[in-house]
Structures are given as C-alpha cells and as structure tokens.
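dumping this here before i forget
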Amino acid sequence: MTSTRFLIRRAALGTAAVTAALVLAACGSDDGGSGSGSGSGAAAEASAAATAEAHNDQDVSFAQGMIPHHEQAVQMARTAGSRASSSEVKDLAARIEKAQGPEITAMSGWLKAWGEDVPASMPGMDHSMHGTDESPGAGMPGMMDAEDMDDLMAQSGKGFDTMFLTMMVEHHEGAVEMATTEKQKGRYAPAKELAADIITTQNAEIEEMNKLLGKS
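structure:
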C-alpha cells in the first residue's frame, strides 16, 4: 500500500510540474517573449494586414464587375454545348467556361479577404437577370441585356453559332476594356496579373471568333 501511494504521489507531482511549466511558457509569450508562438502570430497578423492594404478601390471595382461579367460568359458558353452546330464554336465555348470559372472563384476570394461584398449569383446563373438594371453587372462594357440573352436562347444550329460569336466578340471586347483599366489603375498584384491574362486570352479569342464569322 505504501508503495502504491508513493507512486500516485510522484505522478501527481510530475503533472503539477508540467502544468506549471506550461503556464510559465504561456506567460512568457504573452509578455512579448521570443517564443515561436508569439512570433508566428505576429507574422500572420502582419501578412493579413499587408494583404488587406495591398489593394485599392479599382481592384474592388474590377472584381465586383468582372464576376457577373464572367458569369454571363459562362452561361452563354454552357448554352453553346447543346445549341451550337459547329464543333469550333463548341470547343471555344468549352475553353471559355474552363478558363473563367476558376477566375470567378479567385475574384470572389479576394473580395471576401478584403471584407467587400461579393456579387450575388442567381441560381444556376439565370441569364434572365444578367445585364439588366437589377444585375450586379449592369452597365459593365459588353454585358448583354435580358432581351439579348432571350434571343440567343431561342436560336439553335447555325443561327445560334452566328449570334453566339457576334455577342461573345462584343462581350470579350468589354472584358478587355475593363481589364485594361485594372492593369493601369489597380494596385493588387494578382488582380493586375489576371487583367493581363484576360487581355491576352480574350484578344486572341476575339481574333478566332472573327475568323469563324468570316470577318478576317
């Protein structure tokens, strides 16, 4: 019995010693000591602050405008999958959807990190609202209105191909205009890089679409 009580007493004392050590370490960190926990927390806060400060109003406007702009392009591209007759148009539409979907996600993430509003998407990115006065993208260069989208949805085959290409050229030209403004006036490096990519990619696609329309 004596041996058992002795072992229990030793275990209790050991636990108390460990607890005291942990409390002292925590106090040292709270007092601004050189503990790794304190340093990591300060670095994380500094990083978050730097991210929040490394953007301007133009970056916010770019993301908030380009998100609905991209969403409308994705909606148009998805429609082409079932209504287009040309394999070239279907291939182009698939590339547009593949490229712009992740860009929407990236821009939404920026806005959330900045504490800014993310434009609300209609369920299924309902085309009937994109480009109207109620839409977050209303007034953006190249945005189609509800009537334009309804006209496109009513087409199929070669008629759809022609209308899709014509509308998408205008849509891309608007995106290039918006991206050019961001590249010139924005501050957030990833946003400016995305803007540069949009200019390069969509100008190339404009040239491709004009060739399919027989304009070049």
